[in-house]
Design goal:
By secondary structure, the chain is mainly alpha-helical.
Length: about 300
């Protein structure tokens, strides 16, 4: 995973520096998540490597690694939520939702931090299974709440883009929603397998293959991050995805309609004026012919 994040960082930051002048605020957030992910995986590698060589796992080092991981997980979820709300694309800011997003982020960080410390540091200082279950429930509840909020916000964003008929952004968000749907289906399937795995191995006899349980979530989050990087990659046309473009397109449409209406009104008035002039000329000719007859 460290090598995977290193490759993603090299690709992303090369484009990031190349098109620096066209970078959006959303792309700054993506860069921060990639950097934190790389830092987290390097720390995990060093922690496990030291554990493998010395047979000892310091509590302070492990707690520090877990904290960085909790920060990265929190920012990743907030990034997906902000993208689903249309931050920087449909709306310039989150507005009144900023405080709510920050509140759910802080709550999730605390729950994730406590759960991860219990799972990893708890292997050093034993923690009972009831305590782990008690700390795991808030984390699972917040994950479910975030998923519901993400899909609700994504549905509203798709409706706004469809109403404004912005095909480029609508296509991007449809691809993003499909990727999220696949990720959710894969998550549910893996949770089912995880329950089966733990239920059929109550004494942890298959500990050598248990690493795949947690590895799946790292791979899934990395794959979803790659999808976001692909859809919102830095380029010369990055600004066409910005919020200001929506105003410009609406203004252009309104301006075109007003010009069309002005032209049509002018054309009708011109036709009416010509008809009036023609009728006046005909009446003058009739008057002159009647005077000639009288003479």
């Amino acid at each position: 995973m460290a090598i995977a994040y290193l490759l993603l960082s090299a690709i992303w930051f090369s484009q990031y520096m190349r098109f620096w002048e066209d970078i959006l605020q959303l792309q700054h957030c993506i860069a921060a998540v990639i950097g934190l992910g790389l830092f987290e995986m390097i720390l995990w590698y060093l922690d496990y490597s030291n554990f493998n060589k010395t047979g000892m796992r310091p509590v302070v080092t492990t707690a520090w690694v877990v904290t960085v991981g909790a920060i990265k997980k929190t920012l990743s979820r907030l990034l997906i939520l902000s993208v689903s709300m249309g931050y920087g694309v449909v709306r310039p800011t989150l507005g009144g939702l900023t405080s709510k997003v920050l509140l759910i982020g802080a709550t999730y960080f605390v729950a994730s931090e406590l759960l991860d410390i219990t799972e990893h540091v708890g292997t050093i200082n034993y923690v009972s299974g009831r305590a782990r279950l008690f700390l795991g429930l808030p984390d699972a509840f917040l994950d479910a709440f975030l998923i519901l909020w993400i899909f609700t916000s994504l549905s509203k964003t798709l409706e706004q883009l469809q109403a404004k008929r912005i095909s480029v952004k609508l296509d991007i968000y449809r691809k993003f929603s499909n990727a999220l749907a696949v990720a959710v289906i894969a998550s549910v399937a893996w949770i089912t397998y995880e329950i089966y795995f733990k239920a059929t191995d109550p004494f942890n006899e298959r500990w050598q293959s248990a690493w795949i349980i947690t590895a799946f979530w790292d791979i899934l989050s990395f794959a979803l991050l790659c999808v976001i990087c692909y859809l919102w990659a830095p380029s010369q046309s990055s600004q066409r995805y910005a919020y200001s473009e929506d105003v410009g397109e609406e203004f252009d449409d309104e301006e075109a309609q007003s010009l069309t209406r002005g032209q049509s009104n002018g054309y009708v008035s011109l036709v009416k004026q010509e008809q009036k002039n023609g009728n006046a000329a005909i009446s003058d000719e009739e008057d002159e012919s009647e005077e000639d007859k009288r003479e």
